[in-house]
Amino acid sequence: MSAEPSSGAAGSPSDLRDFWRRFRANRLAVLGLAFMVALVVVAVLAPQIAPYGEAERSSVFRGPPSWDHPFGTDGIGRDVFSRVVLGSRVSLKIGALATAISLIIGVGFGGLAGFFGGWVDGLVMRITDIFLAIPYIVLAVAIASVFGRSQNAIIVVLGLTGWLAIARIVRSSFLSLKELEYVEAARALGFSNSRIMFKHILPNALQPIIVYGTIAVGVTILSEAALSFLGVGPQDPTPAWGLMIADGKGSLSNAPHLVLFPGLAISLTILSLQMIGDGLRDALDPKLR
Amino acid sequence: MGDSMTTSPRNGPGTGEVLLSVQGLVAGFDTDAGRVQAVDDLSFDIHRGEVFSVVGESGSGKSVTAMTIMGLLPTLKVSAGQILWHGRDLLDLPDEEMRAVRGNQIAMVFQDPLTAFNPVHTIGRQIGEAGRIHRGLSKKQARLEAIDKLGLVGIPEPHKRADMYPHEFSGGMRQRAKAAMAIMNDPDLLIADEPTTALDVTVQAQVLEVLVAIKDEIDSAIMLITHDLGVVAGLSDRVMVMYAGRQAELAGVNDLFYRTHHPYTLGLLASLPSLVGSDDEPLVPIPGSPPSLVHRPSGCPFHPRCASAEDPGRCASEVPQLRIVATDHLAACHFAEEVASGDRDPRTVDRGAEA
Amino acid sequence: MAAIRVEQVNERYGLDDPLPVQFVNYWKRTIQWDLGESYLTGRSVNDILKDKAKNSIRLGIWAIIIEIIVGISVGVYSAIRRYSLIDKASTVTTAVASAIPVFVLGYILQYAFAVYPNKQGWPDWMRLRTSNIGPPGSGDGTWFLFFIPTGEQWRYLLLPAITLDSVSTALAARMTRGSMLEVLNADFMRTARAKGLDERHIVTRHGLRNAMLPVVTLIGIDFGTTIGAAVLTETVFSWPGLGSTIASAVSDRDLPVILGLTLVVVLVYSIVNLLVDVSYAWFDPRVRLGGGAK
Q1: Span(s) in chain B for CATH 3.40.50.300
Q2: Does residue A205 lie within any of the structural domains?
């Protein structure tokens, strides 16, 4: 990533315009952004948009898509469209909060490791090595089976397992940034370590954090769906997309829509976040093209 | 000497068989900001046996010229001119025939010897490769010849060194190995693009001596590309000074140094430490920086930086053509004769005032 | 009655002991490679491991074979023919493939290649199988050389294998493309051209091996993703391997099985990463152990 102190972090209006011009050039990223904006609106207005409640049953079981039920009904007669709409809240909430936890831990640990180096760096890196030695899903499954199955438990589990990559990225930017002259200058002026870290280094390390953070939200939503699918996520009747797929898998031959619509929702969300991440990377750091 | 001028009078002096003849080359790149003319109306000959130096700042078009001769710039658009090699135009050559010339008849020594070697193959294998593809040598023959060439460029224990990897070589050794790679097939022309920039001064001299010795050994010619007029002084036969993609001056090395006809060349000489002139003469950098190739100055491209320029006047409005200013001496300056006689040299005037 | 039962259970699993003692006992047994027994079935975890591991390995081998062959060749081709139709198509495909969750893809493939043909009444040979490792009653005999399917077997293997490596293949293709593009612009490629090599030799002799460096690392790191994907894939296709066993142990809260199998997975994962580091030396002489002159 760029080690140039001036680029990107600044927020002057012309910089922002420039950034937006470059971001707009990537049509896929704009498409992804449009989808995510729409999804957030849907999530906020979910109770108004959803025609039925999350546990409300009709007399039609596994009904195909129709005017009354645009995405059909599930095994106990609930409206799939309403559940997918309400499920966007679950996914976005878990994705955003867990990523926030990961970012706090990752930026904190990575920043400390990169800034102080020495044994602090060694310790943090060994911790990430150990965590990385365990396949992510297996680790999350193992922790989740201990923590229980509420939404909050899942947020904590995903937050606690998702910070490794962020810590490494932050560490390497801090390592290169702390050698720059303006940091030396800040030291010479007698600024405190925390002031140097947060006011002088962090703003310049933001680019990779923003890019990876965006992608991490997608990864988190994917993991949440996987955990729900495996039955260690939120429990019925919470309309988690992964759980809906697990519920619908038994009726693949007579009601494929039970898997199709929640599956589509997950895939489009993750795809959009990835495309936004790619677009951000290109727009923030033109040199990387 | 005059009888050797086999092509056009603009090509300057030289002796021996003409190997390469560049005639009226105009070439550039298409960018978002429009066509960038990297090389504009370039003509020169290179003769067997000579060291032909091309001098200029970065962006002067000297490296583009070399890469164009090698056909290594796929994005370059040639809009006019010819590059005649033994009478054939390299620009018209089909890919396959061009490949047979590259690395075989014309070889190149690149600037940065570390990145120019593939890190995953041994030095010997990379040197021998040119022999294997052009002359169909076996692996074993190629290795033996590579060892010969390593010895020729003065690398000790070449049979051991051949099996080592690039990262195990020092900078100077790598540069020698690059030279060995270039002479694998005894090429007629060696193009050396800033071959010594990355090296320290003592190694620079050694590497250049090796290059010239090889040239004599295999009876070829060298086209030496550099930004440093000091490098060319000792070993060139002829020197071409380039500025903003155009030729500024082309002459034999002594003529160029002691009967300079172009203010830019004068400027380059003035910025050299103690090569010509007296020791107490101060080093004078050329003011300003090379022009952008997208927005060229009107008239003479050098006039905004030229202390002797007539501005407003001819220099700002009329592009000076390269012309014969003395025997075997070409320059592109409206006032070449005055510059040579010292009448238009501001430094001469200044010195006169001080004295 | 219930109290007596609790006592029996506590005694059998040593749950009465203080926690540190239990912890030490656990590791004592584990080091002797006694992974305990399932709470649910009473079957020893070592037994379960022996039974299920071979199926996971078979699936994993095929996933990695497909990842390397398809991922790398698509990536190399995309890089050489940059901006061609195939490059664009593969860029889109890899982006989509890495965004579709493994289990969603699994069901889509099930529907397309088994459920739908079945509904349409297509002849049996046109349908693929979506459940279990092979025809009922088939033993290990339907595998040639342990991992090559014979007869009916391939119809059971195909969909899980494709599902399992979809994400890794997409990543490998993208990574190969990027690193190949970088190598194609390297100075030593220009040197190779200056020697008069033709493009095919430039790519095969000078490009590939350099471009493979980051890809090898990826395949190592990515093995973790593959393991995660295996848990999901095996569950989707009821493939009797370690992944589906771990998944069902989790929903059954069968702790010894979860712990034991996870431990094995982590060990294998570490060994694979070690092998990747070692193979690095072959690809890149600069990191060769003890590196210097001979």
Answers
A1: 1-105+189-273+285-349
A2: yes
Q: Full-prediction pTM beyond 0.90? A: no
pLDDT average, residue stretch B168-181: 86
How close A104 gets to chain C, by Cα (Å)? Answer: 24
Q: Is C263 on the interface with A (CB under 8 A)?
A: no
Is pLDDT at B351 greater than 70 in this prediction?
Answer: no
User: Which of A188 and B11 is assigned the larger pLDDT?
Assistant: A188
How close does chain C come to A78, measured CA to CA in Å? 21
Is position A76 within any domain?
Answer: no
Q: What are the contacts of A103-108 at 24+ separation with CB within 8 A?
A: A103/A163, A103/A166, A103/A209, A103/A213, A103/A216, A105/A159, A105/A160, A105/A163, A105/A166, A105/A167, A106/A162, A106/A163, A106/A164, A106/A165, A106/A166, A106/A167, A106/A169, A106/A170, A107/A166, A107/A167, A107/A170, A107/A202, A107/A209
- B105 CB neighbours in chain C (<8 A) are none
- pLDDT at res. A1: 38
Average pLDDT value for residue range B152-170: 89
Residue A1 lies in a domain: no
CB contact under 8 A, A231 and C250: yes
Q: Does residue B76 have a pLDDT over 90?
A: no
Determine the Cα–Cα distance for residues B53 and B146; give it in Å rounded to an integer. 28
CATH architecture of C41-283: Orthogonal Bundle (1.10)
Q: Which pLDDT score is estimated for B347? A: 45
Dist. CA C27–CA C29, nearest whole Å: 5
pLDDT in tens, B108-160: 888 776 678 888 889 999 999 989 989 989 999 999 999 999 998 888 999 99
Q: Tell me which residues of chain C, numbers 41 to 60, contact chain A at a CB-CB cutoff of 8 Å.
A: none
Query: Contact B116/C187, CB-based, under 8 Å?
Result: yes
The reply to whether residue C197 touches residue B110, judged by beta carbons under 8 angstroms, is: no
Average pLDDT for chain B: 82
CB contact under 8 A, A138 and C227: yes
A274 and C118 within 8 Å at the Cβ level: the answer is no
Determine, for residues B108 and C194 on separate chains, whether the beta-carbon distance falls below 8 Å.
yes
Encode C109-134: b = buried (16+ Cβ within 10 Å), e = exposed. Answer: bbbebbbebeeeeeeeeebbbbeebb
Q: Residue B172: what pLDDT? A: 80
Q: Do A226 and C103 touch (CB under 8 A)?
A: yes
Summarize pLDDT for A193-243 with one digit per residue, the tens: 888 888 888 888 888 888 889 989 998 999 899 888 888 888 888 899 999
Question: With contacts defined as CB-CB under 8 Å, which chain A residues touch C273?
Answer: 133
Q: State the number of CA atoms in the 13 A half-sphere of B190 facing the CB.
A: 32
From C277's Cα to the closest Cα of chain B, the distance in A is 16
Give me the number of domains chain A comprises: 1
> Could you say which DSSP state residue B320 is in?
P
* pLDDT attached to residue B332: 92
B1-105+189-273+285-349 fold: Rossmann fold (3.40.50)
Paired residues of B78 in beta bridges: B27
With a threshold of 0.90, tell me whether the complex ipTM lies above it: no
Full domain range(s) for residue A263: 15-39+88-288
Name all chains with 3 or more CB-CB pairs below 8 Å to chain C: A, B
**A59 belongs to a structural domain:** no
Å between C83 CA and nearest CA of chain B: 16
Domain at A273, CATH number:
1.10.3720.10
Q: In chain C, where are the structural domains located?
A: 41-283
Q: How many CA atoms lie within 13 A of B145 on its CB side?
A: 22
pLDDT average, residue stretch A44-63:
88
- Per the CB < 8 A criterion, the answer to whether A98 and A220 are in contact is yes
- Where residue A11 falls among pLDDT bands split at 50, 70, 90? low
User: Do C246 and A226 make contact, defined as CB atoms within 8 angstroms?
Assistant: no
Chain C nearest-CA distance from B176, in A, is 15
